[in-house]
Amino acid sequence: xxxxxxxxxxxxxxxxxxxxxxxxxxxxxxxxxxxxxxxxxxxxxxxxxxxxxxxxxxxxxxxxxxxxxxxxxxxxxxxxxxxxxxxxxxxxxxxxxxxxxxxxxxxxxxxxxxxxxxxxxxxxxxxxxxxxxxxxxxxxxxxxxxxxxxxxxxxxxxxxxxxxxxxxxxxxxxxxxxxxxxxxxxxxxxxxxxxxxxxxxxxxxxxxxxxxxxxxxxxxxxxxxxxxxxxxxxxxxxxxxxxxxxxxxxxxxxxxxxxxxxxxxxxxxxxxxxxxxxxxxxxxxxxxxxxxxxxxxxxx
Length: 300
Hints:
This protein is of the alpha+beta class.
């Protein structure tokens, strides 16, 4: 009888030990799963936080560029909303609404420069004031801009300032694309000013990149002038003083018949190719490593 009781107690103790072991094992498994889930969720939260912070930094930088340049009016908050960007029309913005921006500084300062504004614009009929028959002054252009009553009128006035004020000095000095016809027109104007008429003008058809900048290209120009000494030297002087950049690399001057001078020169003119915008895409990973992928897209 006593032995049966002892055996029963031992069986119960063994069974209790088994339950305890199973309970400890279950608790350990549950704890391990819980730790793994917590670790996973922490990584997900950390990863999402990095993504959100990266997006916020990119949006803030993008908004700052827009505000500094003066493309749109200042946003209601610290960054532009999608609605504000969709409703933004750069040509319909009054300069007074974007003070201190790059655009306002250019329109208010560079466009009003009297020295640059004296560049001839007779070849553009839109720049002639129909009342006076002379080129628009900056004051007259600014008055047209201030009197604009609609976005379309404001856009037209803005374009008129770009074409007929001193701002025109920028595309005239360094065109934004290869335009050999405009180059020949510039040379022809210089010849007219010098009271000399060439026998013929034709584009060279060749261009190449320069070492100055990756988007700066050159066009070769071969020039031959035969005239009296004053006309020949005046032609060379006008080319050197031209607002359009001409780099005379080599020139020879010879005496011709009837006290004339023969000028043969090799020169280089320049233009800017389409601007290339480099977009840097940062790939953020959950293991704290990141890589930068650079893609390029052309802006006309």
